[in-house]
From TrEMBL:
Pfam families in the cross-refs: GemA (PF06252)
Alphabetical list of InterPro entries matching this protein: Phage_Mu_Gp16
Identification of the protein by name: Mu-like prophage protein gp16
Superkingdom as given in the UniProt entry: Bacteria
Species annotation: Methylobacillus flagellatus (strain ATCC 51484 / DSM 6875 / VKM B-1610 / KT)
Length: 144
């Protein structure tokens, strides 16, 4: 099995460890020099030396934390006009007494039943337009 060889990742971890351990430049360079045959810059280290330095920092109490996962585009994306309209129509149905639960989870459950899609934010434009029209029809039936 080939080791996970990512030099830039190892260099970044070393610099994070230096900061989190509160090492000044002189102390940091002394540690590198003692561990790696006089080398005083992490950029000059080979893969095994990088690993040796990381293990040393870990022995001093530093813990390498996994990188935070980036948020997905579906959670970062602003709601489309259709999604906002669906939510407004759903809340209107709730005010009219046709829908018991006004929550996002209730809209998602309805969307799953009607369109096989887990959340109304994930509908494509045609599906969202169709759902909005269906909710409008439902409102007109309830208000007659």
């Amino acid at each position: 099995m080939k080791p996970n060889y990512n030099r830039n990742n190892a260099l970044a971890k070393i610099h994070i460890a230096k900061k989190e351990l509160g090492l000044d430049d002189d102390t940091y360079e002394l540690i590198l020099s003692n561990l790696c045959k006089g080398k005083t810059s992490a950029a000059d280290l080979d893969w095994l030396e990088l690993q040796k330095v990381l293990k040393h920092f870990e022995s001093k109490g530093w813990i390498s934390k996994p990188a935070k996962k980036a948020r997905t585009t579906t959670t970062m994306k602003r709601d489309s006009d259709e999604v906002a309209l669906i939510r407004a129509l759903w809340l209107n149905l709730h005010k009219l007494g046709a829908v018991k639960n006004p929550s996002e989870q209730a809209i998602a459950a309805f969307t799953k039943r009607q369109y096989g899609v887990g959340h109304h934010k994930w509908l494509d434009k045609n599906q969202a337009t169709h759902m909005a029209e269906a909710l409008k029809s439902w409102i007109s039936r309830v208000t007659k």
